[in-house]
Amino acid sequence: MESKFSITITAFPDKTAAKAAAKLLVEQRLAACVQIMTVESIYAWDGKVCDGNEVLLFVKSKASLFEEISALIKNNHSYNIPEIVQIPLTDGLPEYLKWIEGYVK
């Protein structure tokens, strides 16, 4: 079953960049809500194990808008290869999903 709604996850290097992207996503009606959290990430990059703080975004939207969401994130990101992954929402409070559907384009 294909999901109508999704959460897109991305990480930014700092809160200023993360908040700017989150505001653009909501202002352009690509997301009804974007949650922002500071996390510590341990990851492999260029043959090394790295450790650093990042700011994680949870973008609540329609699955069909993933390409537009992804493009906006890439165009406003400093990483060469930003994390941009989509997780389908298979179920949720009907009123909440209706709110997402009513706000995003």
Produce the secondary structure layout.
Layout: E1 5-12, H1 15-27, E2 33-45, E3 48-62, H2 66-75, E4 84-89, H3 94-103
Antiparallel strand pairs: 1-3, 1-4, 2-3
Give an overview of the whole structure.
There is one protein chain. The protein has 105 residues and is of the alpha+beta class. It is 31% helix and 40% strand. It is built from 3 helices and 4 strands. A 4-stranded antiparallel sheet has the order 2-3-1-4. Strand 2 (33-45) and strand 3 form a beta hairpin. It is elongated. The protein starts with a strand and ends with a helix. The model has no long low-confidence stretch (mean pLDDT 96).
Number of strands: 4
**Span of the ends, CA to CA:** 22 Å
Radius of gyration: 14 Å
Morphology:
elongated
Number of helices, counting only DSSP H or I runs of 4 residues or more: 3
Major sheet strand order: 2-3-1-4
The mean pLDDT is 96
Q: Largest sheet at a glance? A: 4 strands, antiparallel
Low-confidence stretches: none
The share of residues in helices is: 25-40%
How would you spell out the order of helices and strands? EHEEHEH
Structural class: alpha+beta
- Portion of residues in beta strands equals 35-45%
What key attributes describe this structure?
4 strands; 3 helices; 105 residues; elongated; alpha+beta; 40% strand
